[in-house]
Design a protein that fits this description.
Helices cover 83% and strands 0% of the residues. The chain is mainly α.
């Protein structure tokens, strides 16, 4: 199956559920000073973006090193769901 950038973006948004995670994130930042919240949010988003970029470029090689195929990863994901 080939993925376009648009389909990958839609899939990522559906999996991450950003609107559903707002209350959880707001509750986690409850004890952080209001002037630090923007920096904390930017730091966390930057870390997540860096991880996404890293796995986008080296994800296939990582799976090969681990000895996993795409099919086995799909089956494991289906079992988890």
């Amino acid at each position: 199956m080939t993925y376009t950038f648009a389909s990958a973006t839609i899939l990522l948004l559906l999996i991450c559920d950003p609107l559903g995670n707002i209350p959880i994130f707001a509750n986690a930042l409850r004890h952080v000073a209001p002037e630090r919240r923007a920096r904390v949010i930017l730091r966390e988003v930057s870390i997540a973006f860096g991880l996404l970029l890293a796995f986008m470029f080296v994800g296939d090689r990582f799976l090969r090193v681990m000895g996993l195929s795409g099919l086995s990863l799909q089956i494991a994901g289906a079992v988890v769901l």
